[in-house]
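Suppose you are handed a protein chain with no further information: no name, no annotation, nothing but its sequence. What can you learn? This example shows the usual starting point.
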Amino acid sequence: MVSVGEDKLFKGLPNQTAPEGLSGPDKPRLRTAERRQVVWRPFALDDFVPSDHRVRLVWRFVEGLDLSALLATIKAVEGQPGHPPADPRILVALWLFATIENISSARYIARLCDEHIAYQWLCGGVGMNAKTLSDFRCNNGAVLDNLLIDSFTALVQAGVANFKRIAQDGVRVRASAGAASFRRHSTLEECRHEAEQVVQKLRGKTAAETAAESVAATRRQEAARRRVADDRERRVRAALAVTEELRARQEEKARKEAKREADKEPKETADEAKSNDAKPKERQKEPRASTTDAEARIMKMADGGFRPAYNVQFASDTESGAIAGVSVDNIGSDMGKMAPMNDALAANYGERPKQHLADGGFAKLDDIKALSAAGVETYVPVPTPRDATKDRYAPRPGDAPAIADWRKRMGSDDAKTIYRERAQTAECANAQARNRGMKQFLVRGTEKIKASALWYALAHNMMCTWRLVWGCSAAY
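A reasonable first move is to predict its three-dimensional structure. Written in structure tokens, the prediction is:
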């Protein structure tokens, strides 16, 4: 029996709708969403993150880092006015966690801080924005370099890493610039003239002219237009400086080659000189630079194509796989980069690795001699001689003692066994960085590119710490 007040009791409930086409006894009863219902849920952020979640490992790793250099730059101190900034540990943890999650966009991380519980847990109620994240990623290269050194030193002290044998390899990473942004010097002069005119026009506008052009335009929009014009002029000037430098190098190289040819060949007669003057001279290729990223260079990539890129070098320990050193330049070749990396490692750690492994692209004789003089054994493949009948490992006439020892060493079975460790170490570090998103940089300039590469290296060492020291293989 239905009570008299039943219609009043259920009057406030939402209507239960059914799919169209069903009516009568076949009409289903559904539980529909009520999104305006007030719900009281007392909870803590810590309750929503599982105890074995790897975001907790990230925070544990960051807590062990020495961030005193970052704290020393903070101007807001106790007893003085000023808005307190975010804890540097939060920013470091956010970038490390985002890196291992294959995220490299500051805007995306800022959005995740509002939507994703793991990022909310790291923030702990501290507000975060894309500008703060982006500036922190790029403006602390020296601090990141020291943190990488500390992370590798900690692995050595824990007995899981060894500084005696280092494997080096380079990886070309796409720059944040398009191939169409590369322009010749003459074209850049025209671009600079146009950019200067735009800047002068914007700076010379009166308030009345600005209001006449667009009623809806605000001071903020006008200031944004001026910033864009100034930035365009700055980038064009930087590209012009690069083309001037490249052209000076070309001229210097041409002078040296001409002098070498003149010293090698006898002087030509008057008739030969007249005949040579009549021949068309080869035109040198005019240097080009990018108006987007003036420091980027066109390089041959792994797929055989040519794109604007940077060359990132990682030096890794063969025992643990951890990265001990990072360098970045805009030269596509790896030739001549073995000795500078070894010197940098010696300066950072106070000692040199006893053995340095690299692929055939690093085989520069001057580097091998310099490292041999410093007491370092190089394990680099010996180039195949043009004459197939010659033994590639036999010393050649005129070889320096260090070069002769290198050839004989690479022909031994022990050297071949040691050299096999190069691929499983250096190539693995490159592959891990690419898997975590190091396929194209979102920042421009060598300094910012190196800072980004250091984030990948520090994240790599963090995961080596999880695996080798803390035994957290599941989180790896």
